[in-house]
TrEMBL record:
GO terms for cellular component: membrane. Residues 286-350 form the Cation efflux protein cytoplasmic domain. It comes from the Eukaryota. The keyword Ubl conjugation does not apply. The keyword Nucleotide-binding does not apply. Its main location: membrane. This is Uncharacterized protein. It is found in: Membrane.
Length: 363
């Protein structure tokens, strides 16, 4: 199948982007647009080729395939346990110095450690409940619900600390904060652990979408923790208002960031549709599944929590037997459900496309 005409045409459609310097791309908008267009098209074509050659090995949700290598598992486990250690260090630093900036990062690290443990439990629980008769559609949405709960808990704590920072700025106490070398060292160790986790996840981020998310999270934490250490020390040595002002800024950044996370989780729970590129890949995979498939009538892919449900309507010849139609549809369903990220696939077979759309209520 890899040497058929369709794949050869796809490979022949790959275009090398114009060889221009990064400086020229920044200055000339047309050159930059052309370069970005060809790059995106080549990525999409390569995904289609990858799906055609081995649909079970390719994750359609990402540009790179997920693997379960030793480094990926080690990075995930190291991030979970490293976050717990960071939380302990942040608790000591905040309790010793009573710095509002460190209290904000302490709250985030504690919520993050609890959420990592809770989400790991929910992932394992969801796998067990997927085979339960009480959860016929699967329990994958438990993870989204857990993310939302932890996000609201962290935003509530951050809001309290934001209010406390405003009260401190508006109050009459103008004394410098407490500076403790051991506390600063503990906070710096927490920053170093986050920096190590960010670098480690950055190295292997192309092999796992989960590591990509962990890298982004650890990278953002490095900025927040570093800024908190600076404002805490500056509030104790330079100006009293630097510490509460830094806590106010960090708290607002955390709230805004997690509002975006809650929004994305809500959209997935509500059935957000998949990207057009993914739908095109499903169409391409369906058309190549069997020569008996004459046409793809429609494809719907939408989130059911973190994973996707796929509905495919195909057209086959009316003179085919029920056994032939069933076998083709069943094999296509099994192939789609073997793709990582697809929870379930539904295949509907028809003999023409002039009918009304399926799954529509008539009033």
């Amino acid at each position: 199948m890899t040497n058929d005409i369709e794949l050869e045409r796809l490979r022949g459609s790959l275009v090398s982007p114009p060889s221009t310097s990064a400086w020229s791309q920044q200055l000339h908008r047309r050159i930059r647009r052309a370069h970005n267009y060809h790059t995106e098209q080549n990525l999409h074509i390569n995904r289609l080729i990858q799906v055609a050659e081995d649909p079970t090995a390719a994750r359609l949700l990402d540009d790179e395939p997920d693997t379960s290598s030793l480094h990926v598992k080690a990075a995930i486990n190291t991030s979970i346990y490293g976050t717990i250690l960071v939380a302990a260090l942040q608790i000591y630093a905040a309790a010793t110095t009573r710095s509002l900036s460190l209290f904000v990062t302490m709250a985030e690290s504690c919520c993050e450690a609890v959420s990592n443990i809770g989400l790991d439990y929910l992932h394992r629980k969801a796998r067990k409940l997927n085979h339960s008769t009480q959860w016929p559609a699967g329990a994958g949405r438990l993870c989204n619900a857990g993310n939302i709960c932890f996000a609201f808990a962290l935003m509530a704590v951050s809001l309290v600390l934001v209010v406390e920072s405003i009260r401190s700025l508006a109050g009459s106490d103008r004394e410098l904060g407490k500076f403790d070398v051991a506390a600063v060292i503990a906070a710096a160790c927490g920053f170093g652990i986050k920096l190590f986790l960010a670098v480690y996840c950055f190295i292997f981020r192309k092999h796992s979408s989960q590591l990509q998310m962990l890298w982004e999270d650890n990278r953002n934490d490095c900025f927040e923790y570093g800024f908190a250490i600076f404002t805490s020390a500056a509030g104790a040595k330079l100006k009293w208002w630097v510490d509460p002002a830094g806590a106010l800024l960090i708290g607002l950044v955390i709230i805004v960031t997690w509002i975006g996370t809650v929004r994305s989780e809500f959209l997935e729970l509500c059935g957000l549709g998949a990207s057009p590129n993914l739908v095109q890949e499903v169409v391409f995979l369906t058309l190549r599944h069997s020569d008996l498939i004459l046409q793809v009538d429609s494809v719907h892919a939408y989130h059911w929590g973190e994973e996707l449900f796929v509905e495919v309507d195909i057209v086959m010849a009316p003179e085919l037997s029920l056994r032939e139609v069933h076998d083709v549809a069943q094999e296509l369903q099994d192939k789609l459900e073997s793709v990582e990220g697809f929870a379930r696939a539904f295949v509907h077979v028809d003999y023409e496309t002039s009918h009304m759309p399926e799954h529509r209520k008539t009033r």
